[in-house]
Structures are given as C-alpha cells and as structure tokens.
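Hi R.,

Here's the chain you asked about this morning:
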Amino acid sequence: MAEQRDYSEEVAEEIDNEVRTIVMRAYARVRTMLSENIDKLHTVARALLDNETLNLEEFEDIFVHVIV
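And the predicted structure, written out as tokens:
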C-alpha cells in the first residue's frame, strides 16, 4: 500500500525526529513511574496471583498515592 507524500524528505525527517522525541520522553516518564512504584506493582502482581482479578476499589487501594 503505497501513498504519495505531499511534503519533502526534509519535512518527513523532521516529523520522524519529533515523533521519536515524543516516544522517548513518554518512555522515560513511564520507566520513572514504574521504578518509583515498583512496590505497588509487586503488590498488584501478588494480588492478581492470589485472586486472578482486582476490582477498581482494590486496585485504587494499592495505587492511591500514585501521581500520573
């Protein structure tokens, strides 16, 4: 499925670079959030291993202090 672009190779490169920057910033933010909340992630994992499911209230009880 080939489409013809309405912009130059330079603009395509700028778009690629901007998308890459957005994705890398999001990736870094998520890694930080995961590492800062690893204890809560482990608690959720243990609860899921024990119960297979968590309802919203149970999940929120674990993550009550997480800042997104």
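Helices lie at 9-36, 38-51, 56-62.

Let me know if you need anything else.
M.
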